[in-house]
Amino acid sequence: MNKLQNFTKGFIKENPLFVTVLGMCPSLAVTTSLEKALGMGMGVFFVLVLSNFIVSLVMSNPKIAELVRPVRIPVYIVIIATLVTIVEMLMHAFLYDLYKSLGVFIPLIVVNCIILGRAEAFASENKPLDSVLDGMGMALGFTGAIVLISLFREILGAGTITIWGNLVLNLNFIFNFLHIKPIDLFVQPAGAFLSFGLILATLTAIGNSFKPKSIVKGATANE
Amino acid sequence: MSGGIKSGLVLLVLGIISGLLLASVNAWTDPYIKEIELQEQYDALKEFYFDPTDPNYATYQVSDLYDLTKLDVNEGSISTILVLKDKTSGTLESLAYVASGNGYNGAVTMLIVVDSDLTVRGYKILTQNENPPIQEDFINYDYNVSAITDLSQFDAIAHATFTSNAVLACFNAVSERAANDFGGGLNE
């Protein structure tokens, strides 16, 4: 796999949220507004890229790798937890409103399966540059996915798009034109599952439409 | 050297590196965080003395009305007390306590402002990490506390025992010392 493929595979082909369905908990919880989704995306980008780089750097040295391998999972967790704590402190100091709105979901990045998954499945077996590209691609794919869910939920649930801070696009004129109100359910926890299911089903249907019919039929028969 | 000792040493070294890195980032960000927290306390305090709908609200400061002193006490659940004294007579008018209690996901910090007649001028949740459905309910909830010496009418939130207890702990901590503070402890 070349460097471009390493970078782009996380966008669609191996999208962490819509294909491998990892990191669901924070994704569903913080997608009530675009701002929160972007904030979470930034945090995950920082942690994923750096953890991939550090893990790859450690594991690419045969002597250090031999020492680390028996305790590699605790080592990955310490690296990831350190990076997440740094993100938390930086957000607290410089992006306080975002820090408050993301709340408990910032420290929960530690247990995001995408990060540990990429460290174990990719970074530990590849070179640092490839691992950084993989981390960037996966983080951008994750961010794109939660941005899509947050747009869907915020527009339908609140009739707005909160881009950043006070920069809010009010789309209520569309609802007024249609003589309906935003559906509050979409910004509630139940709406998160509903939105995710609807988007996933739509993307799967679109994906299947590009495949030859024999493959789709075969897959259905196997189920 | 056995494998177990080697693994232990690897984790020890990693822990030390991680600790040093976090300590240096903390040393860098801590002054910014403290400044933000103090500003948030002042902003919360302002809401109890000025009308937020006033067009000039942003320009007002509590320090325009009172002599404002910050005391870092760190006694029990109370970390800070903001002392508000009359500018001319120096009479103690109000005390604003920053108190914290243990909620479901860690500390809930509140600002509770008590006037010299021991009535509660106002209270506000400053920081919390409660779960989202509870979070939205309890921040602007009316806990029905009007006098700091009488918490018998405290109104807890249904289905949020931990969070309600955290808020009640904040009020209790202030209740235990407010009378003493006004009676002489801070009234000098």
Explain the layout of strands and helices:
The complex is a heterodimer of chains A (223) and B (188).
Chain A lengths: L2 H6 L15 H6 L4 H26 L2 H7 L3 H23 L1 H7 L10 H9 L6 H31 L1 E5 L2 E4 L1 H6 L11 H22 L2 H10 L1
Antiparallel strand pairs in A: 1-2
Helix pairs in contact in A: 3-5, 3-7, 3-8, 5-6, 5-7
Chain B lengths: L2 H44 L15 H4 E10 L2 E9 L5 E12 L2 E10 L4 E8 L4 H8 L21 H25 L3
Antiparallel strand pairs in B: 1-2, 2-3, 3-4, 4-5
Percent helix of chain A, as a range, is 55-70%
Report the uncertain regions of chain B: none
Report the average pLDDT across residues of chain A.
89
Q: Biggest interface, which chains?
A: A-B, 23 and 24 residues
Taken in chain order, the helices and strands of chain A follow as: HHHHHHHHEEHHH
Overall shape of chain B: it is globular
Return the structural class of chain B.
alpha+beta
Distance between the terminal alpha carbons of chain A, to the nearest Å?
Answer: 30 Å
Largest sheet of chain A: 2 strands, antiparallel
Structure in a nutshell:
Chain A has 223 residues and is mainly alpha-helical. Chain A has eleven helices and two strands.
Provide the descriptors you would attach to this structure in a database record.
heterodimer; A: 223 residues; mainly alpha; two-stranded antiparallel sheet; 11 helices; 2 strands; 69% helix; 4% strand; B: 188 residues; alpha+beta; five-stranded antiparallel β-sheet; 5 strands; globular
Structure description:
The complex is a heterodimer of chains A (223) and B (188). Chain A has 223 residues and is mainly alpha-helical. Chain A has one domain (3-208). Helix content of chain A is 69%, strand content 4%. Chain A has 11 helices and 2 strands; from the N terminus they run H-H-H-H-H-H-H-H-E-E-H-H-H. In chain A, strand 1 and strand 2 (167-170) form a beta hairpin. In chain A, helix 3 runs antiparallel to helix 5, helix 5 crosses helix 6 (96-102) and helix 5 packs across helix 7 (113-121). Chain B has 188 residues and is an alpha+beta fold. In chain B, strands 1-2-3-4-5 form a 5-stranded antiparallel beta sheet.
